[in-house]
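Before relying on records like the one below, remember that each one covers exactly one chain. Contacts with other chains, cofactors or solvent are not represented anywhere in the record.
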Amino acid sequence: MGSRAEWVPPTLPPGGALYRAIADAIAMDIASGALTPGMRLPPHRKLADALGVDLTTVTRAYADARARGLVEAVVGRGTYVADAVNPQRTKVELDLSMNLPPQPASANLALRLGRAMAGLTRRPDLSSLLNYQPSGGGDGDRRAGAKWLSSRIPDLGADRVLVTGGAQMCLTALLAVLCEWGGNILSDPFTYPGFRMAAQLRGLYVTPVKNDAMGMVPEALASVVRDSGGPVAVYLIPTAQNPTGTTMPLERRHAIVKVAREHNLILIEDDAYGMLADPELPPLAALAPERVWHIASLSKCLTPGLRVAYLVMPPGADVPAVRVHLRGTAQMAPPLSVAVATAWIEDGTAQEILSAIRQEAEERQTIARRELPLGSMSAHPQAHHGWITLPPFWTDRAFAEAARRMGAAVIPGAAFAMAPDPPARFVRVGLGAAPDQQVLTVALRRLAALMRNGPVAEEEVV
């Protein structure tokens, strides 16, 4: 076990429930490195005395942090920062925790990347690519971004597109532009954990809005806005939502836009999976361009290694202000990666890679539906992940740990939860990281056996 931390948060994020503020502070200090994996947190009573709060508040805070997957409790020993609680954990052989695009042979990624890099070395402007670039990208790269997205957002001009170093950089800067410190932002009950991290860095409180099988419920959104004093922004993943796999049908998209217009809400649309979807649904940015900030990453449809995403702004947006925040977040998008992305978009390579990855993703989804218990998985047919509902004898944490002992890593649903007490019934399974379909099949069969057979009693483990 790690050493004990004499940890006390220097400040607590303002507003909201005190126990959630303590859990948020734990998350922020883990993100900053002040708390490291395996470090033991102070006993409940000691932290309560240090903060001047009652014992129940700290107990609820630790429970909230545990539900988020930030910490783990070891009976008789204390509470530890997660991921290194037990250094004797079984080595993961089949990592289904990462939400990565597959790399099918038909995509020829290695060959194409080699050719693209060789092409860069022959460019007469190579020296400029090795220097600082404008925050938000140069004109040619912004035009390429507009071309890439033109099939989804009609009449999109390069003046509304900025190039960023990946969706996380873009999202972090965007929250700084759009949200006041300590404000409130709305999201799905389960959503991308990077969004919560970006919100915490801005001191924002995330309020979850009820979902159904079609995504965020418009009536619930309107009700939360009225009851919470009018938050200004909503974060959404309308297509192949991460982690639940939900895709909003067209009528639901129109209904969400209607509520946003009635209450003057800003919509932040994370469209990481939109280019994969076939047939495509129009993004929110095409339905309400005046109030949607659209993030389109290349990570899920080409490769995460490029670290390139495009931000589509509403017409008339304050572009210089956005550029300032992008520069403050990460100075610029990586120039060589952007140059490769632009070249691939211009010569059609990006579309060819996308088609190959979409086909492979669809085949892997078919395998998952075949191998996992019938009806247990929710997913988009071209996405790289599935959202599994566990049998009642499993909790998400127990299932993830049992899967790890079997050599297959999955993510407990609590890691995606925006509510303090999420139902412990779900895990997310990544289908793209396995090197091939055979390896994926083996991993899924292991998970299916766990789901059917239930937990093994400790005395049966040898």
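The CA atoms of residues 71 and 81 lie 4 Å apart.
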